[in-house]
Design a protein that fits this description.
about 180 residues; DNA polymerase, domain 1; TIM Barrel; 6 helices; about 20% strand
Length: about 180
C-alpha cells in the first residue's frame, strides 16, 4: 500500500515480472480497494502467488467512531503496533475533506493542542497514512481534499508524507487534484 507507481514497477521487476503491471496493481489496491491478491483476476495466477508470498495489503481497523449531525465523522483507527490515530471527514457542498494524521502523537508540545499532551510516539509509515484515506473511502461517498493536519506535524515525517501524497495524486490510485 505504500509504493508509488514507479516504486511498484521496481518491486515487480525484483520479482522478475513486467514493470508495466504496476498500473493495474495500483488500480486494484487503491481504486478498487482490493486487499487480496487472489481477487485481482487480470493479474496472472503466477504473479498473484508471488505477490501473496512477498507482500501484504493491510488497512487500519476501526477502534471508535463519532459522528455529527452535519455529516462529519471522526474515526480512531488502530495501527498494527497497538497505537491509534485520528482521521476526520468533513463534508461540504460539492466536496469532502479528509483530515489525516502523519504521526502518532506530536513532539512539538504546543500548549493549546490536546495531541501534544499525549507526547510523541512515532512517525507513521506511508502505508499507514494512505490506509486512513483507503479506510475513509470505504465509509464516505466522496473525498475531494486531504489535509495533513491530524495528529502530528507532517513536515517532521516528510519522506512518508511525500510518498503518500504521490499516491494520492496519481490518477491510477486516488487522482486527487493538487
Amino acid at each position: 500500500m505504500s509504493l508509488s507507481r514507479p516504486a511498484m514497477a521496481g518491486f515487480l521487476s525484483g520479482l522478475d515480472e513486467p514493470p508495466a503491471r504496476a498500473r493495474s496493481l495500483i488500480q486494484w489496491i487503491h481504486q478498487r480497494r482490493t486487499l487480496d491478491f487472489a481477487q485481482m483476476p487480470d493479474l496472472n495466477q503466477r504473479l498473484r502467488g508471488k505477490l501473496a508470498a512477498a507482500a501484504a495489503i493491510a488497512v487500519p481497523a476501526l477502534r471508535h467512531e463519532q459522528s455529527s449531525q452535519d455529516g462529519t465523522y471522526k474515526w480512531l483507527l488502530n495501527l498494527d503496533d497497538g497505537n491509534a490515530v485520528e482521521t476526520v471527514y468533513i463534508p461540504e457542498q460539492g466536496r469532502g475533506t479528509l483530515c489525516i494524521s502523519s504521526q502518532v502523537g506530536c513532539g512539538l508540545n504546543c500548549r493549546f493542542c490536546a495531541t501534544a499532551q499525549a507526547g510523541f510516539n512515532r512517525n507513521l509509515t506511508t502505508a499507514e497514512i494512505i490506509g486512513q484515506l483507503w479506510w475513509a473511502l470505504s465509509r464516505v461517498p466522496k473525498i475531494t481534499n486531504v489535509v495533513m493536519m491530524g495528529m502530528g506535524e507532517p513536515l517532521l515525517n516528510y519522506g512518508a508524507v511525500l510518498a503518500a501524497l504521490d499516491l494520492m495524486l496519481d490518477d491510477c490510485a486516488y487522482g486527487l487534484s493538487k
